[in-house]
Write a structure and sequence with these properties.
The complex is a heterodimer. Chain A is mostly helical. In chain A, 77% of the residues lie in helices and 8% in strands. Chain A contains 3 helices and 2 strands; from the N terminus they run ααββα. Chain B has a domain at 201-306: V-type ATP synthase subunit C fold (Up-down Bundle), CATH 1.20.1690. Classes of the chains: A mainly alpha, B mainly alpha.
Chain lengths: 232, 351
Amino acid sequence: MAKDVKPTRKNLMAIEDRIELSERGHDTLEQKRDGLIMEFMDILDQAQDIRSEVEADYQTAQQKLDMARAMEGDVAVRGAAAALKEHPEITTQSKNIMGVVVPQIEASKVRKPLDERGYGLVGSSARIDETADAYEDLIDSIILAAEVETAMKKMLEEIETTKRRVNALEFKLLPELKQNQEYIEQKLEEQEREEIFRLKKIKAKKEEEEDEEQEIEADEREGATTASPKAD
Amino acid sequence: MSATGSSNPEYVNARVSARRATLFDEEDYRKLLRMSPDEISRYMEESTYQGPINRLGSRFSGVDLIEYALNAGLAETFDELLAWANGRLYEQVARYLRKFDAWNVKTAVRGVYAGTDPEAVEDDLIRAGEFDDALLDQLVEAESVDAIVDLLDGTIFGDPLAAAAEEYDESGMLVPLENAIDRAYYENLFEGVTSASGAGPESAYAEYLQAEIDFRNVRNALRLARSGAEVDPAEYFIEGGTLFTPEELSTLSRNRDQLVEHIRESRYGDELAGALDEMAEADSLIGFEHAIDAALVEHARNAGHAHPMSVCPVIAFVLAKEREVDNIRAIARGTQAGLDPEEIRAELVVE
């Protein structure tokens, strides 16, 4: 990877910018992950409570239904159930928890007063009323559980994604960028050293040439001085 | 037989007491509580339910077989009562058994409303009332509520249903129709019953009917008070009882404590004292209704003993037979659902 990067000062600056940005992103994502985990833990507690509530409500409703079928007869219970066609209405909206869009489920017409349940009051019994009450409680709990468990699932997915991003930054991108930075720095230092060495070489050669020239000049001067006393 | 001729309580009550001896007793229930549903149906095969069990055995199995056989057995027994009775006695018994006509009309109406298959609706009928098979078959095959209303023209349910059909058309809810059917039944119970005052057989029967209507009004008022529905309980008031006037019911059902106090101070106070205490503790009406059912059975049986040459022993037998059906069904369904035998036993109403 590092060998693919051109060891230029411009690239070094770009990498330093990316490192800074990545480190900032890493910190932010880490904070987001921790925040999401805290929110998730709250929702998890809530979900566990609601799940137990659903189980308890289901047991109660089933027990009431069993007793109603036993005491009133299956035919009477089925008849009472057939007397109502209207189903509960469910509307979903969304809310945002730390950037995670989770559903907000609202139900209407789950709980019905006695005069809107379809079956006649005069020819029915409290056992059927209480069975219907128990199933209304159960539906309410299921709707709440659906909301909380969907939120939990979505938050879990977001935590996973954030964790992967944090890990990718921490263990892949940042090390690679730092490796590249180091590589470029080393290369640049090496180039600098080579430049200094080259300059020194040039300087030495230049000095050598100057010395040679001076020597030649000195030799020439000396030759001229030895020839002039003969002429005297 | 028919409404013509002279009343024959001696003959009918002699046959009724023979039939009463064939009802399941405490020992039978103890045995049934230890049996599986299949064993219960085999046990029933050796009783008065032999015919229905054998006839329905090829179509149903398990607890469904038991329930349908019980309903069929109930219908056969009550048909026999009508076949034995003559004259005024026939009229009184037939009028009381119209509760099954009401049941069948409600079943047919619910079938149309929910789009249920006519065959399934037919299975749920209890052919124990006054309607003949031809009318019941037409009700089952009816394709609309209006068609049912037309078919019932001339019966006690005709006019009330026609009036309630308008409300049904507006609201699309079955409640007005169902209430009209049940009210028509209760409000016609008193037809021909002379007076509740005095000490004769007629007044004993009238007193029993008053108790049944009073208990029904109490149940409805308490259920409305418990549900918090914003309806005037007077709308559901059934005429004929002595415990409330419609105005009293409207006022009392807004305050449960006052309502309970009113019942305690009434002539049913002693009979229902235990049930009222239980209701206050448990915040559930189930135990109270159970006590009311037991009190009615007791009431009818006492009236039957006091006036053996009246309709009272027949009505007491009708109630006892209904309780038998309820008890066997409760044991079978309860056992199938895995309920504790003691819990099932507590729900039985045994004379």
